[in-house]
Specification:
Blueprint lengths: L5 H16 L4 E8 L2 E10 L5 E10 L1 H6 L10 E5 L1 H9 L12 H5 L3
Antiparallel strand pairs: 1-2, 2-3, 3-4
Length: 112
């Protein structure tokens, strides 16, 4: 869209997270992703009082838009990605994200 900025991104992400997870404390941390500038990582406060990184986000880099034949002087874009593993961790009480990648079939079968 025209004249999007980080406030639009923050509002969109906050609205999504509130709709999905309810009223949890949320924090944005500056980060780096090669296709967005500025970029941030977003955390939610888990029930055990620990911060859990839930997604990465940013304003689409103007070079990306130009490579798609979009006038970056007129348009900008929002980008964010939510990891499915993070959702499964919260829903099923998984404590360590690495458990999803250990090829432990007994562990994985519980998510059928």
């Amino acid at each position: 869209d025209e004249q999007l900025n980080f406030s639009h991104l923050r509002g969109t992400v906050m609205a999504f997270l509130k709709a999905f997870f309810g009223d949890l404390p949320i924090r944005f941390r500056a980060s780096y992703f090669p296709f967005t500038e500025p970029s941030a990582e977003v955390d939610i406060l888990s029930e055990d009082g620990k911060w859990l990184e839930i997604l990465g986000c940013g304003i689409v880099n103007p070079v990306v838009l130009e490579n798609c034949n979009i006038d970056s002087n007129k348009y900008s874009g929002l980008a964010f990605g939510l990891g499915l593993e993070r959702i499964a961790m919260l829903k099923y009480g998984v404590n360590d994200i690495r458990d999803f990648y250990k090829s432990n079939l007994d562990f994985l079968r519980q998510f059928k």
